[in-house]
Write a structure and sequence with these properties.
Elements: E1 4-7, H1 16-28, E2 34-37, H2 40-49, H3 53-57
Parallel strand pairs: 1-2
Helix pairs in contact: 1-2
């Protein structure tokens, strides 16, 4: 369906993206080849790339 995803920047306003991704990804079986982001979105992208977003947030 999607082979890439990009996360927006914006400081702490971006953390919702991680929660959204954790819920939507398994429901839609998303497996993008490319994960990118800018600023805080890049931090979110790196966190999601680990597949351990809850551990990283802790």
């Amino acid at each position: 369906m999607f082979d890439q995803v990009v996360f927006a920047g914006g400081g702490n306003r971006c953390w919702w993206q991680a929660g959204f991704w954790d819920i939507v990804r398994p429901e839609l079986n998303l497996r993008p080849r490319i994960i990118a982001g800018i600023s805080a979105g890049a931090a979110t992208a790196c966190m999601l790339y680990t597949n351990e977003s809850r551990w990283v947030m802790d």
